[in-house]
Amino acid sequence: MHPTTAQLEAFLDGEASTSEMRELDAHLRQCSTCAASVLGHVQVKRAVSTAGKRFSPSPDFRERVRKSIASKPQRSPRRAWLTGAVAVAAMLVVGVIATSVNQHRLQREQVFREIADLHVATLASTNPVDVISTDRHTVKPWFQGKLPFTFNLPELQNSEFTLFGGRVTYLNETPGAELIYQIRKHQISVFVFQERAVGSVMGASSWVTKEASFNLETWGNDELRYFVMGDASADDIRTLVNMLKKAE
Amino acid sequence: MPLFDQLYNFAHWLTQDRTEAEDLVQEAYMKALKGFASFQLGTNFRAWMYRILRNTFLTSRTGLKAAAMVPLDADDAPELPSGAETPETLLIDHSQHQLLQSAIEALPVHFREVLLLCEVEEMSYQEIAETLTIPIGTVMSRLSRARKALREILKQQIAVS
């Protein structure tokens, strides 16, 4: 049965429960109608997010509010002034912490969302890969001359993973590699970008998270930033991550 | 000042006017400052600030007019499964910025606010529920309706142009 629009939306807003997400994942892989619908929704969602950041306050106005906040408590009697000043300080602290933490989180989430979009777009595509090969010795050289960097791929013998192929993809106008792996029919995208494509928001650290219900793990070495994303279990993703790290 | 730029953006979308948006933001900050004692640490600061801003808007002249124009009773009506509709063919890219902005402007205010809180402010359903003081179920259905209304407006605009 097709999911309702509300279920699809909750899924894309990251608000569906784990079991709902699993069901929807399974459905989306079989149903091109719903996959296309999801793609349309994602695009409108992202466009609204950009178009909605439209108005910014004038510097004059910012100054006026700052002054009125600063001057108001001073006119009151001494005790009220103290309470006022404490309130302003407390409010600033809470706000500053909330916004700076938020800023970084938002930028990071933006990257995760882009990665999820790329992954979903690949799932929905009729030609998911540009080089079809299970042989890493074919896939890796194919990227030569197409990317301004190179990377190593792991040996898959004795593992359950198969390499399906690869394609060139883009993040923040920077080219990178997308490799499609499969494990027990789950598709996993491995993205390799130069670290500068994601800016400084990731730091050097690794993140394990969920985006649009997909499991996502990311890490960087000095130059390259890897993202591994798919609907496979977190353990499977972790295994592939470790294999990639070993091959680096 | 915490959340200043975001609150201003939201206020301007609500009022659709620079001067009114400025008045609204300033008043909201004054109220927040006065009522800061009533803010409980550990509860959501952002939802609290947006709630003050929005309540201030709703009691303003523009807000009263805007709110009076829209019936809210459709929120809990049942909806159709998505698979029953034709596939979503409406593909929007960044070059259609203006088209999209005028479509958002054309939305009734209760659709506009819920959409912006979700897509632009990236609030969780829980946060939106706190901001608008409505149940989460209503957040979901209203958001869904807002998106549907937006798509309808966009389709019409694209058909005209």
Q: How big is the Rg of chain B?
A: 17 Å
The structure class of chain B reads mainly alpha
CATH architecture of the largest domain in chain B: Orthogonal Bundle
* N-to-C series of helices and strands of chain A: HHHHHEHEEEEEEH
- Do you know the CATH topology of the largest domain in chain A? Phosphorylase Kinase, domain 1
CATH superfamily of the largest domain in chain B: Winged helix-like DNA-binding domain superfamily/Winged helix DNA-binding domain
Q: How much helix is in the residues of chain B?
A: 55-70%
Q: Indicate the CATH class of the largest domain in chain B.
A: Mainly Alpha
Low-confidence runs of chain B (pLDDT<50, min 5 residues)?
80-88
Cα shape of chain A: globular
Q: Given the structure, what is the number of helices of chain A?
A: 7
How does the overall form of chain B come out from the CA principal axes? globular
What is the domain total for the residues of chain A? 2
Label the structural class of chain A: alpha+beta
Tally of alpha and pi helices of chain B:
8
Q: Tell me what portion of residues of chain B adopts beta-strand conformation.
A: under 5%
Total individual domains of chain B: 2
The span between the termini of chain B is 42 Å
Largest interface: A-B, 57 and 60 residues
